[in-house]
Amino acid sequence: MERADGGRRGAPRHDRGAGAVSRARAWLVPAAWALALGPAAAQNPQPVPAAVEPETATPPLPERLRSHALIVPVEGVMPDALANTFDDARSQGRVHEAIDIMAARGTPVLAADDGTVEKLFDSEPGGLTVYQFDPSREVIYYYAHLDRRADGLAEGQVLRRGEVIGYVGSTGNASADAPHLHFAVMLPGPEKRWWEASAINPYPLLTRPAVPAAVEDPAATPSGAADPR
């Protein structure tokens, strides 16, 4: 996905062949030391551990994403109309790391979840953007290519799920004849910086069955409570 500074979000993809190369070098280094240090070293070579490059692990979903359903953040768009473009290739060797939600220019963009406006940012790739933290500050929602933001939208503003935060457009590097919302979901690091986070795929979060809301048992109404009927 587009970062505010034009780079890519998410953990780098490591070359899985690097471990095999490192293991081969572990056998060569002691021999080289033995030649350099003489016969004594050759008789008692010391093993040199191979450099192990750690695998990148996908962080677990925060409780908020496991227990709350997100809404499609474009008014009138149903989940079955979405396309999974998270892994699509983009220019300069980038991976999309977001989904594009196609809609007519000016269609209201909605907060996918409750939370707070963290940053209103204008960038060359993303155009007019909004960064939103969820209530736990464990999830960031990123809305980009907006035609304009909602009137009065401000940093620090508390949002309710479904609230209008802007309107679909094609600002930034989006094509003028294909307005859409670039929507990303990211997990920040311990410092909770809006510009440092790892992207996760929003598609399954938007297309899974809704989490049923708790239903109160009418029989559990406290004695003396007003009857809503």
Question: Your description of this structure?
Answer:
The relative contact order is 0.18. A hairpin with a 6-residue loop joins strand 4 and strand 5. Helices cover 15% and strands 23% of the residues. With 229 residues, it is an alpha+beta fold. The chain is globular and about 40 Å long. Strands 1, 2, 3, 4, 5, 6, 7, 8 and 9 form a nine-stranded antiparallel β-sheet that branches. The N terminus and C terminus are likely disordered.
Set down the secondary structure blueprint.
Layout: H1 18-37, H2 39-43, H3 63-67, E1 99-102, E2 108-110, E3 115-123, E4 127-133, E5 140-149, E6 158-159, E7 164-168, E8 180-188, E9 197-200, H4 203-207
Antiparallel strand pairs: 1-8, 2-7, 3-4, 3-6, 4-5, 5-7, 5-8, 8-9
Number of helices: 4
Rounded Rg: 25 Å
What is the helix fraction of residues, given as a range? 10-25%
Strand content is 15-25%
Contiguous runs where pLDDT drops below 50 for at least 5 residues: 1-36, 48-56, 211-229
Shape: globular
Class by alpha and beta content: alpha+beta
Mean pLDDT: 75
- Tally of DSSP β-strands: 9
